[in-house]
Amino acid sequence: MTKPSNLPQKPKRKPTETLRLQGRNIITEDDLDEVFPDDGDVEKPEIYSHRKILHGFVLTLLVALIIASVLTALAVVRGDLKIPGWSHTPTPEATCPAAVHEYPPNDSITVNVYNGTQEEGLAGQTSGLLAKRGYEIGEVASKRMSRTGLTAVIISGPAGEANAFNLQRNIPETEYVADQREDASVDVVLGSQFKQLVPTDSVDQTAGTLSCPRLSPEPTEAAK
Questions:
Q1: Domain edge (last residue) among 86, 120, 144
Q2: What does the alpha-carbon distance between residue 172 and residue 14 come to, in Å, rounded to a whole number?
Q3: Position 23 in a domain
Q4: Is the dihedral of CA 91, 189, 141, 147 positive or negative?
Q5: Residue 211 within any structural domain of the chain
Q6: Is the whole model's pTM more than 0.70, yes or no?
Q7: Does pLDDT of 24 surpass 80?
Q8: Are strands 110-115 and 136-142 parallel, antiparallel or unpaired?
């Protein structure tokens, strides 16, 4: 015997009857059925299966591309794979010019004198001494020097190597540094160890090479 249900029974109403509550229409299941009839147009199982296969294929392809990209990047980093334009070009190692230069006349050289120290007036005083030796003085100013403990740094382009060689013979214990200027001018950056010029009668005017102590190899035990 079936027990009577405690749930309230669905009220019966006429098809055209509209339920109202507090002055508002109430939408029922019957109303929805009338507006949205079930025409049986549901997604077929085979179409749903095809979409799942397509989604799986796309996902697999993306994963494969990510793995391939990671492996390629690792190969490039290790140097196993060379890609044009991606490889790092090492900076050329600085070397000291090995050419032998004759000692050029002082009055053929234009010198820019810079003070690389905290001592005021050093560039002006030194440029005056160089002018007395016949050098053409260019710019006289201050310039920051990254290294300490130097007498002076002599700087020139390839065209000014012989002129830089001349200045190295007049200023003791200097270091030559090359740049890419096209003229034959020479920069002299005075360091904290600069004291004075080589006496005029002691300047060595024989042919020789530029001095680059920082680029020269350290002496071995056998050479000491």
A1: 86
A2: 119
A3: yes
A4: positive
A5: no
A6: no
A7: no
A8: parallel
Reported as half-sphere exposure (CB side, CA atoms, 13 A), residue 179 has a value of 13
Q: Which residues fall within 8 angstroms of residue 90, CB to CB, at 6 or more apart?
A: none
Instruction: Tell me the C-alpha distance between 171 and 166, whole Å.
Output: 9
Give mean pLDDT, residues 8-28. 58
Q: Give the chain's domain count.
A: 2
Tens-place pLDDT, residues 62-85? 888 899 888 887 777 776 666 665
Amino acid letter, residue 100: V
Mean confidence (pLDDT) of the chain: 80
Each residue of 78-100: b (16+ CB within 10 Å) or e? eeeeeeeeeeeeeeeeeebbeee
pLDDT above 50 for 222: no
Q: CA dist 167 to 66, 112, 210, Å?
A: 61, 11, 10
Instruction: Count the helices and strands in the chain (H runs, E runs).
Output: 4, 7
Domain residues for the domain of 72 are 17-86
Q: Are residue 67 and residue 140 in the same domain, yes or no?
A: no
> What is the pLDDT averaged over residues 26-55?
65
Name the token pair of 110: 């234009």
CA–CA dist 184, 112 (Å, integer): 11
Half-sphere exposure of 119 (CA within 13 A, CB side): 16
Share of the chain above pLDDT 90, in %: 47
